[in-house]
Amino acid sequence: MANYERFTELKDLIVGLEADADKFYNKGNNAAGTRVRKGLQDVKNLAQAIRLEIQESKNAAAK
After folding, report:
1. CA distance 45 to 32
2. Cβ distance 3 to 52 under 8 Å?
3. pTM of whole model > 0.90?
């Protein structure tokens, strides 16, 4: 998967959490809060993977 596609995937993950975040914060739905927490963990992992890819790319270009 190309780097920019992974970035797009990251944005889609965040947008996908919006409805559950609204349910948790505005309607008090605790199950939605659990889904948001899980989704944010996925965001964290994907963001870290993207960071590593970018660093590898920068290091390869510097050589």
Report:
1. 20
2. no
3. no
Q: 18 or 63: whose pLDDT is higher?
A: 18
Contact 11, 39 (CB under 8 A): no
pLDDT band at residue 63 under the 50/70/90 scheme: confident
Rg (CA), the chain: 15
CA-CA distance, 53 to 6, in Å (whole number)? 10
The pLDDT, as a whole number, for residue 2 is 61
Cα gap 21→14, rounded to integer Å: 10
